[in-house]
Design goal:
The complex is a heterodimer.
Chain A lengths: L5 H7 L2 H28 L8 H41 L5 H39 L2 H7 L4 H40 L3 H11 L2 H27 L4 H34 L3
Chain B lengths: L26 E10 L2 E11 L4 E6 L5 H8 L7 E6 L2 E2 L5 H8 L2 E4 L11 H11 L4 H14 L15 H13 L5 E5 L7 H18 L2 E6 L2 H9 E4 L4 E4 L20 H10 L6 E7 L2 E7 H5 L4 H10 L1
Parallel strand pairs in B: 3-8, 3-11, 6-7, 7-8
Antiparallel strand pairs in B: 1-2, 1-4, 4-5, 9-10, 11-12
Classes of the chains: A mainly alpha, B alpha/beta.
């Protein structure tokens, strides 16, 4: 029978409480995040509502992200055609390119890549803006002036992102299809009627639902994580930098993980 | 010294928060303890701020002056002890009620904490806009408040375009715009040149003596304490004059040891000095109150630490 050496037990003694403490802190962080996210949504249903701030954020997040969404969407559609066409050519079925591009874009790549781009552009912006306000005591000043910073800063950003991301995804899907068609037209000599007919017919109601439910969930994740990271900044400008990085990394990872589960649920729901 | 007319905006109708409770202090800290990972910062601090009084918190950096101000506005919560403001215990107040409570106090932050995405006018009008005050009234109130701090010409500027002293002045205008009965000043002169420091103290004096604002002011500068204790704003001449009465209450607490406050004598003193609001000093050291009393008594104290503290300011 083996016995643990007393020295080993002694070595483990300070480690276990430290690990437990670490777990407890992480659970508290998740709890704070859940509470804050709930509060940001609950604020929508009670006054005061900051419509001007919401419109301003819609402009920053929606209109501001449009150029990169259009540009990346176009080339993603194009590269998808190049990649799939080389496979379809082997079977002489290049006509199926439209189907593949439409399904891949609308169901998955459109929502996911648009969300990742918005996370990179706007989650960093939101976290650094709110974080800077925290370290310069502007958030405390807001509270001291009798204004709820969650209602004034977070809710407009969450609402704006949730409203804008599905629209940006729709634009990205469309531009991606256009990019795919142009590449197919010039490289595979696929006619517009052939490409568009197949692309449109490949999509059914379930695909569209899948493609438009995801952006709402992704937008909620991006905006709430970014605001949460911004509001809990500690440690001056360095803290702002860390929060900005964390906002992008954490929101991107969470949305990709959540994407897997939503996809599974939606595929099951639509018998795919 | 400045001589512009102080803001004359009528005080807005307030609920019970805005009204001092007769015979009771406006702010009362009782046995406050507060600590962080590095250790306890406040270890049983108790003192009162009476209506019309200017209480100055002196102490070295890290002695907990700012923490006390933030506890007074419930921007922080104590580990133990109670904070009563205008007769209400704000410790257990829900956040929604706290937001309403905070609309009845002014807070001037150390670096001004102006909203950098807003103009000077938007900063000063922030609270009025939040309270849905009519636009025409906002315009006149903001101009009055900015005229009071001599910042009217900068009304359309952004905080980034202003100097440190100008930002503090705008911050004072923002805190005083709707004439709160109680204002917390967090190191309003920190990091400023002597002339600008004097301008800021003059503004605080004018706010106190023309509007009857009760103040709790944290500072590391002993000169601020003596400036507020020895001068007053003369409403008739519009000038800052030396206050012969000195405005001080008899000391209730001596250096290094607490003595029970006699409320009757404190009130009697306030009545006697009705012309010049009393200015008292609290010196914090090692998380406790080391001295509480009038600035004059601080000046003549024989305590070694206080003498060293005063000497370091010269």
């Amino acid at each position: 029978m083996f016995h643990t050496m007393p020295e080993e037990n002694e070595a483990l003694e300070p480690v276990i409480p430290a690990v437990m403490e670490g777990i407890k802190r992480q659970v508290l962080v998740v709890q704070d995040y859940a509470k804050l996210s709930f509060e940001s949504i609950a604020n929508v249903f009670t006054p005061p509502r900051y419509w001007t701030d919401t419109l301003e954020q819609m402009d920053i997040i929606g209109v501001g992200s449009l150029p990169i969404i259009v540009l990346t969407g176009f080339f993603i559609g194009g590269v998808l055609v190049l990649q799939t066409a080389s496979q379809f050519e082997r079977f002489g079925e290049t006509a199926l390119t439209g189907d593949a591009v439409a399904l891949a874009l609308v169901r998955e790549l459109g929502p996911a890549i648009t969300a990742l781009l918005v996370a990179g552009r706007n989650a960093s912006g939101i976290a650094s803006e709110i974080g800077s306000m925290v370290v310069t005591e502007q958030v405390d000043a807001m509270r001291a002036l009798g204004t709820d910073p969650v209602r004034k800063l977070m809710t407009p950003r969450v609402v704006a992102t949730v409203l804008m991301l599905p629209l940006l995804t729709a634009v990205s899907d469309f531009v991606g299809l256009v990019g795919g068609f142009l590449v197919a037209y010039f490289t595979l000599r696929l006619g517009p009627i052939q490409f568009w007919t197949r692309a449109i017919h490949a999509l059914d109601f379930g695909d569209l639902v899948q493609g438009f439910i995801k952006p709402f969930i992704f937008a909620f994740i991006i905006s709430t994580v970014a605001c949460f990271m911004g509001l809990r900044v500690k440690g001056g400008t360095q803290g702002v930098g860390r929060a900005t990085t964390s906002a992008v990394v954490v929101s991107s990872v969470i949305l990709l993980v959540v994407d897997t589960f939503i996809t599974r649920i939606l595929l099951w729901a639509f018998n795919k | 010294m400045t001589s512009a007319a102080p803001p004359v905006t009528p005080a807005k109708s307030r609920d019970t928060f805005g009204e001092p409770v007769p015979g009771a202090p406006l702010v009362s800290f009782k046995d406050i303890h507060l600590g962080f990972e590095e250790g306890d910062v406040l270890r049983g601090v108790s003192f009162d701020v009476w209506p019309g009084e200017t209480k100055i918190l002196l102490g070295e950096g890290g002695s907990g002056k700012t923490l006390l101000l933030k506890l007074g506005a419930r921007l922080l919560r104590p580990d133990s002890g109670t904070v009563t403001v205008m007769g209400k215990d704000i410790g257990e107040m829900p956040e929604k009620e706290l937001l309403n409570f905070r609309r009845h106090i002014g807070f001037v932050f150390q670096e001004g904490a102006l909203f950098d995405a807003m103009t000077v006018a938007e900063n000063v009008s922030f609270r009025l806009v939040e309270e849905n005050v009519a636009e025409s009234e906002i315009e006149s109130s903001v101009r009055e408040a900015l005229r009071f701090v001599e910042m009217e010409p900068s009304i359309e500027k952004y905080p980034g375009e202003l100097s440190g002293g100008m930002r503090r002045r705008v911050s004072i205008a923002r805190a005083l715009v709707d004439r709160p009965p109680l204002v917390f000043y967090d190191s309003p002169t920190a990091g400023l040149d002597p002339v600008t420091c004097q301008t800021i103290i003059t503004l605080i004096l004018r706010g106190r003596d023309s509007q009857g604002v009760t103040s709790l002011l944290a500072t590391q500068r002993v000169q601020d304490a003596f400036g507020l204790a020895n001068f007053r704003f003369d409403k008739e001449t519009g000038k800052i004059v030396r206050d012969k009465s000195n405005g001080a209450q008899p000391s209730q607490v001596s250096a290094g040891r607490s003595v029970e406050r006699s409320e009757q004598s404190a009130q009697a003193s306030r009545v006697e000095n009705a012309e010049a609001p009393p200015t008292n000093v609290v010196v914090l050291r090692g998380g406790i109150i080391y001295f509480e009393g009038p600035a004059d008594e601080l000046l003549h104290s024989s305590d070694e630490y206080l003498k060293k503290f005063l000497a370091s300011a010269e």
